[in-house]
Specification:
Layout (H helix, E strand, L loop, with lengths): L3 E2 L18 E5 L4 H9 L3 E2 L8 E3 L4 E4 L8 H7 L5 E4 L3 H10 L12 H12 L3 E8 L2 E11 L2 E9 L4 H15 L4 E5 L3 H5 L3 E3 L1 H12 L19
Amino acid sequence: MIPWLDRRTPFPPVETALAEPDGLLAAGADLSIERLLAAYKQGIFPWFNEGQPILWWSPDPRMVLFPSELHVSRSLNKRLNKPDYEIRFDTAFREVIMACATVSRVGQDGTWITADMLDAYCNLHELGYAHSVETWIDGKLAGAIYGVAIGRMFYGESMFHHVTDASKIALVHLMRYLETHGYGMMDCQMKTGHLASLGAREIPRTEFSRRLEELVHSPREACEWKQSGKWTDRQ
C-alpha cells in the first residue's frame, strides 16, 4: 500500500517507495506550484494516465545525465554543424508540451501529459521554473525538450521531434547551456536506450538524493544565470 495525500500532507520519505512498480511513492494531493516544487526538491515527480489519481514516483536507481558526460556521436556532430536550424529558448513552451503529449511513440498508448499536467507546467513556466529548448527549421518547430530548473538542478520531462534528430539537437544545446551556466545534473527519471546512447547513466537513489540536496540549495551567486524568468542564449 502507498499513502494517500491530501493537499496538506507532506510527501513520505523516498526510501519508502515501492520496489514494484519501481519508485511508486504516493497518490493524491494536487499539481499546485507549491506541491510540484516540493516534489522536485525531494527527487519526486508526478506520472499518471488520464483517469488515474495523481501518482508520485522516486525510482531506484535513477537515470541522470551529467553535462560533462554528454556523448555526441560522429553522425550527430555532423548534423549539429549544419547551418539549417535555429535554437530558441522558451519561445513556444505550451506548443512544446502539446507536441510531447500528442506525438506518436512506439509502444506507448496514450499520454501521461494530461490537460491538468499541461496547465501545471505552463504555470511553472510563467514563474520561471520550467523551460523549453527548441529546434526550429524553416520557421517551424521541428523538435524540442522541456523540463524544470531549481537551483543548479535540471529535471528533464519530455522531448519530441517532427524532423529526424531535431530533439537530439535541442538536447545537446540544452546540455551545453547547463554546463556553461553551472548546472550539475539533469534528471532523466527512468532508463531508456536513447538517453544511454547520449551518455546518461543510472545512479543509486541514495547518491541521487545526496547530489540533489546540494544542487537545489546552491546559492544564486554561485552561478552566472538567473534563477527565474525566461532563458535566452545570451543569459
